[in-house]
Structure formats: structure tokens, C-alpha cells
Amino acid sequence: MKIPTTMNLRLRSASSIIFILISTFILTSCVNDGPAAGKALDALPVRSALVVKVNDWEELSADVNRNAIYQELLNLRAIDEFTEWLEFIPSNLRNSEFWVAAHASGAESYDLLFATEMPEAQSLPDSLDWQSREYSGTDIYSTTVDESEWHVCSFRSVLLISQSRRLVEEAIRQLDTEHSLEEDPDFLKAYKTVNSKDALNLLVNYGEISGLLEYSFPNAPLSFLGNMGTWAAYDLALNVDDMMLSGIHLNSDSSNSWLSCFSGIRGGDFPAQSLLPTNTAQAVMVNVGSFSEYNRNYQEYLRKDDRQRMFSNQIGQLGFSIEEALLSWSGGEFGLISLETSPEAVAQPRIAYIKALDSEMAIESMKIQADADFIENHRNYIIQKSSPKNLLLLGYGRIFKDMISPYYTVHGDYILFGNNLLTLKGYINDLMDGRVLPNQATFTDALDEVSSNAHVRVIHKNPGAAGLVRRLIDQDETDEIDDNLESLSKVAWAITQYKVDDDVSYSQIFAKHQEEYIPEAKQLWALPLKGEVLGRPQFVLNHYTNKNEIVVQDESNTLYLINAGGEVLWQRELDGPIMGLISQVDLFRNNKLQLAFNTSKFLYIIDRNGKDVAPFPVALPHTATAPAAVFDYDGVKNYRFVIPCGTRVLNYSKEGKQVDGWAFTETESAVIRQPQHFTVGTRDFIVIRESSGKVHIVSRRGETRIPTEDLLPDTHNDLYLSVGATTEETRIISLSEGGQLVSLFMNGQVDSTDIDLADDRGEFIFRDGKYIITQNGRLIVKEELHPFNIDLDADLSSPLYFMRNGTPIYGVVINDKDQVWLYGQTGEPLPGLPLYGSSMFTVGEFGQAGVLNLIVGTRDGNLLNYKLE
């Protein structure tokens, strides 16, 4: 039987029942009067994977109920059920010691055995249907409650309860023999270190724990647990907003524990924490002080584990000295950083680091293994590629098993490795732009709670850590994490560390609750395209999943459709650049969406599989001079595709035919702006602008709706409808090339208004009553409540505006600096800015519901996905 969550040991639906059972009766009516009283500890199976000793249920219950971490986790089924345990503990048990052991009850199942010493006899309740069966001279009583079978026995004054009859029988056998956990010297040594004054003690059997966890985490590499020692013992301390497990691990020679590699080596702090980016999900950090001394111990560890020969054979096939290329320059720190990514992403982005005694010497030494055909400069970081496979694994162990042929660069005293090129580039962006954890006070506060001196430190940061767990469990169990991600994210930090002293490792496991989550901008993935992004990436709706996907074209004229995991669903090369933005249409009125757009030569309709929809593409009789406008006048999906082609404006039906009755005549000068449609009252207005500035306001049929007496002042900006109290006060507005607000009224009159801008060209949008402008290196927002003016002293893109949680956000791109800036409603920059990117960007939900993502292209032909929290 598979265990679907980490704490659910075949007690998912019945975890509370055992304590309902206990609260109903205390059983010794089935006591065997012959044998002398035994100890509850002696009943626990000697191969138990986990052993819990509860010293004080009252104290534990009180601590749990006031602990914020526990309260956040109550939404998880297993934790909720454990709470029911506490609620049903009867008063006459709450002052007694209680033992719980997790043990294999079959080839593919684990169960819990509960044991406590109960010298006083009581009777079984009549409310349950009991069946008894003798075993070894003692009656085992069984009953069924809510389809769950329970087995109860009292033997030698020890009360035994389990869902597994096999575990009860094994406990009876143990109580009747001299075999017990106390005969295991490592268990006994660990057990003697626990503090019985704490409400709960936990003991872990590393020889058995991987077998239990593999049912909860079927996709996790758990074999390393067998090399973590024999037994560990912890005491639990719960405070209002944190928890701490502190204790020891035993690294006896017989266990050949990896932790024994640190024996005799002085630990230290972890300067590499300055390298941790804000999108860290997990960081495994190792400080060995002297690498040469550690490496001697590590080679002996491999020899005892019978892996040295295998590694030696692979090292011998490299064709160069691994000592020279990789080990000789190591400065005693190394580690692996797993980065947060989207749930849909195929691979987990990872960064490895090794501190160098001399970084220049390290790069020179690594030349003998570098790929001679690859070198790249990214923001003045020289990136090279490791040619042989698994070099880091061979030199430093399985911590680097995912670094197959990594890309690497230098940052200060550290050599940094990325498991792919775009991950390394994104990490460089974070370092350069200051998106690192030491800049967050909550991170340094969490570190203050653990010892600064250790050999191994593992840091987990949510929500990325929850994403890592999501990858390790069964697919059908991921919904629970997705549904509770907000609560899980408030358990912001978890830190585990080990300091080795001969055959003992002093260990701490600390978790910290953080009520107010600090929003961050974090790169989730990067995708290489054939060339630089053209135009703006766009979100389009997948009509099957009702979720967004990205469509983008690059300078090779290739059009891509990309899902939230960064996977290219299809790509196809077009005859030229797409003009303007892509529209989605439901051509066949069956709720299936297609992409509609034009190049200079063709009008395209493409289905979601990237295939042409007949009779499209339609060849245009003249070269298009502006993007097609897609109009659905009455919302009945009777689409019209209106395309400027020089001095002609063509109107196509959804059948790919020019519309009969379209009366618009040829213009005097070329139409170089996309036609726009406005509805005022019950009337439609189509606005067509010539390059001369002349404006035509026409009906659906192309007939003049309002004669225009004046020319609209020259403007490259779009037109926007500003609705007044009456039709006469309603106007179409834009920004002139001279920085004035231009108003075109429904009677054809044009008015220009000074709005305190420079007499210069600017980029203009109008949203929610706000004038949003970029002009002369400034981002300007003009509105009644929160106007602001920010001087960025750079060439700025057109502004972008969107809403997040009901609050306006403004954005711009500084193309020549590869920077994306976002500002709140009063002009304050958002945390974690700027982002790296050079193209126009788009913002929307992409994968995780309720979370916005920003999609932007880079000069070197990559598409980046940032999560905006």
C-alpha cells in the first residue's frame, strides 16, 4: 500500500479512530496474568523505521495548538488527522508515556504500533463488536470501525494497538523474549541523549527509514539515507512561530556514514550564503575547511562503500587529471542550489558552486576539460562548458549528480555551474541585480536561530521547496500541495544542519513561520529561441484547459506556441514578421479558438496545433501597411478582418472573401495605423487614419459616419475612447508628436490641450482614466489621486499597465540596459527590480492561479518567464 503523504502511515481516513478507540476504553480485561509486567519500549519492533516517545500529551497538545506552523499545515489531511489524535486522548492516558513505532507490516505497507504501560485492568466496551483470537497464550481482540480494522491486546501489562495484526503479534513475541531495541547499542546511545522533560522525542533508524519514505516519495532518490548513520535522536521544541528539533546522529564506523567524512575537520560558517538567489527552493551547503583532508576521508568512505573502484574506472577514462582540473584548487566550500520553477517545468534548474583557493588558477586548470567549441559572454561574465560528462559527480559525489555537462563561470572566489546555459544566465542576472537572500531580513533572522558553526547546512525556502516536494510525490497527490500553496508558503524557512564530532553529529532542524509574505519577482524558466523576439510575447487561451499559453515570434520569423512549463508545443516559420498583435477568434462558433494575424503578404488563421485553417492564409492583393483589425461588432462571431494596404483598406469575412458592400474608398495617402473600432451608445465608429493625419470615421459598411473638418495632429500612438456624460462630450484621445493631448469629438472637431509635457514625441496609453506616458527618459502618470513622474535617464519603451490585486502597476523597458522596471501606484519600484530583459513584455496568469507572470525576450534570443508575487 502506498503512503500518499509524508505523515500518513496508513492512517489517512482512520487516524482519529485509534484515539476514539482508546478514549472509549483502556484494555486489560484480556491481560495474560502469567508473565511479569513488561516495558512498552520492549514491545516496539527492533527494525522500526521511526520511534516516537510522547512524554506529556497535555503539554504537546498545548504547544501544537498555539504553533503557527502547525496551524498552517492543518489544511493537509495528515496533519488534520493528527490533530484529531490529540483531541481524543483520554484524560487517564495524558499523564502516561506513550510510544509509537512505524514498521513494515507487509511487502509494500507500513503501519503504526501504539504501546503504553497499563497496569490497571478495565473492560472492553459493549458498543463495539469484538472478535477474539488466541496468539501465544494471549487473546488479541479485533473490531472494525468505519471499515477500518483494529487489533488490541494487553500483554504483560503493555497495551498494544495497531491496524496490523502482524505488528501486534510481533510485539507479543518481543515482550516474551529478551530481544528489544535496547539491545541495539546505537539505539541505546541515541535514546540516552533525549530529554524526557520535552513533550516529544523522536528517534530515526537510518537503516530502515528509506523503505518507509519511498511510499510517500516514489520519485525521490532515497538511497543516500542509508549513508547518513545508524540512529538519530531529537527533542522537539515548539514556539509560537517556529519549531526546533535538536539532537544527535550516530556515525559509527560500521555504518560508513557520509557524515564521517567530516570527522577531525573543523567546521565553519557558510560565506556562500551570499550567493543564494531569492528564487532559491533548496540549498545544500558543505563547508569542509580543508578540502584535501576531507577528500582523503571521502575516498576512504567510497572504498568502504565499494564505489571507489567504479569511480576510479570512470576517472581513468577522462583523459586528463581530475586532480589538476577540479580538485587541486578547491577552497573548502561547495554546494548545490535548486531554484524555484513552475510546476509544469520539465527539469529542475540547479546551480552548483565550488569555492576556489584562487579563481584565476581554477579557470586556468579547468581549460583541459573545457569544450573548445563553446565560449560566451553574458553581461561581462565569460561562460564556458564542461566537456566530459559527470565530472563534478566524480570529483565531489552525488550531490552533483544532475550536473551532467554543466556551463560555468567565475563570480568572485567561486566557480559557478549551471545544469543548463539559460539557468546560469538567469542566475548571473540575479547576482548582478541584487536578488539574493542576504538582502532579506527574514532570511538572516532565520539563520540567527541555528548554530553558525557546522559542516553541512540545508536550507529550504517556500514556495519553491513545496514545488520540490511536488516533484517527488505521486501525480495524483500534487493537488493537495497546489490547493494549499498559500498556507505552505507561510512556513517560509526550514534549515537543517550537522556538525560532526568523531562518531557523533550534532543536528538541528529548524522551521520558521512568516505571516506576511514578501512579494518577489523570480525567474521560473528561460527558453532559447532561434533569434531575438519580434514585437511582444502574448498570452493566448488554450480552450481545452482554459489556461494561458504564450505565442511569440522571433527574428527568424518563426512563430512559437509555449506552455507554462516552458515547453514549445509547436513552431512554424512564416513568410515575414507579424504586423501588430495576434487576435484569437472562434471561427466555427464551437468554442475552439484560432490565432488571427497578418504579415505584409498574407492574412493567416491558425488553429491551436499550428495548422492553417482553410481557406487561409489568404494572399493580399497589395502589400499590407498596418496590422489587421479584427472586429466582432455584435459579439456573434461574425468576424471582419480590416487590413490597410497602402491607400486601400480591405475588409475580409471569416470565409476569406472580401466583404460585399464595403464602401470605403481609396485614401489620398497610405494608411499606416491599425483601424480601431469604438462603440458610442448604439452606434459603431471605425477610425481609419492616413499618414497625412487625415481621419476617417466610418460605419460598419465603410460609409462616412462623421465628416472630419480638421486633420488629426500627427501621432504614432493608438487612439482611446474617453466616454463623457453625453455623446457630445465623448471623445477619442491620443498624444501628439508635440506632447499635447489630442481630442477628436464625435462631431469631427479636433482639440489639442497642453497637459504639462515636453514639446516632444512620447509613448502614450490611456487606462482607467489615467494618462500614462514615457517621454524623454521619464515615466509619467497623470491621474487625480496618485500622479508621479520618475526620471530614469534612459531611452524608454512604451509604458505598460496592468492590475495586481486591485492595485495598478506600471512598467517600462530600458532596451539598451536590458532592464525591465515595474512601479506601484505611487511610483515606488517593486521588490527585486530591475528584471533582465530587452523586448516589450506581457503580464498575466501563467500556470499558478492568482499569480501573475511576466514574459520578456532578451537580446541573445531567449524568452524569460518571471513570477510576480
TrEMBL record:
<dbReference type="InterPro" id="IPR021787">
    <property type="entry name" value="DUF3352"/>
</dbReference>
<dbReference type="InterPro" id="IPR011047">
    <property type="entry name" value="Quinoprotein_ADH-like_sf"/>
</dbReference>
<protein>
    <submittedName>
        <fullName>DUF3352 domain-containing protein</fullName>
    </submittedName>
</protein>
<dbReference type="Pfam" id="PF11832">
    <property type="entry name" value="DUF3352"/>
</dbReference>
<dbReference type="InterPro" id="IPR015943">
    <property type="entry name" value="WD40/YVTN_repeat-like_dom_sf"/>
</dbReference>
